[in-house]
Amino acid sequence: MAERSERRTAPYLSHILGGALRDAQERQLLERIRRAPVPRHLAIIMDGNRRFARSAGLLVEEGHLEGKRKLEELLDWCLEIGLKILTVYALSTENLRRSKEEVEALMRLFTEAFRDIAVDERVHRHRIRVRAIGNRAVLSPELIEAIEHAEEATKAYDAYVYNVAIGYGGREEIVHAIQELAREVRDGRIVPEQIDADRVSAHLYTAELPDPDFVLRTSGEERISNFLLWQTAYAELYFSDVLWPGLTRLDFLRAIDAFQRRQRRYGK
User: 47 an active-site residue?
Assistant: First the structure.
């Protein structure tokens, strides 16, 4: 009897000890992170919802729901370290080529997410401005309405910025900027020689913001995938093997710690 009781107790004790060790690591990392500058603008490619669902025996839609819940957790982690600007890659133009059923489910999920964020107590307490960047013409009417409501509800806030790239493609964004500049040349407002990097940046979706200095991608893939192509020219890149819904607070803190340990040279 005593031997069977010990076998039952051992996994429980292991779980408790593992949790205590993780908590201690998180506290140590958080203290270290708070003593150094955090990224001014963090961009995240949230990859791995579908693979997470398959590995857990869930439906694809449930995997996306778990991803939404993880994003809600992430907002707390960013506030905890004082990170001021967050841009997340929620829906790419390429994602719209998926099955009709999956795209419709994503539209419903994002509609719910923007409705939730418009009334989120954290958003109003911390004065977080919420913005969507991308081509809204490809989104559902209900989602566009939810986006506009969230933006209107937070437009006066200036303490933090939370961007959601949705219906977004980096090449399309650059093409859009070029078209606007071409119209300015055609109308005689500028001459071609006046077009420089600053003027191009001023015509991007992120015109009012500093470029991201740190890009985090989950799921083990090591590519940018048409995300903020112009803006990430000098960003530090960090690739995590963890699937997005499985990202932990410790994973996040380790990524921020890795950023702080790097020496940024800007080609010098």
Answer: yes
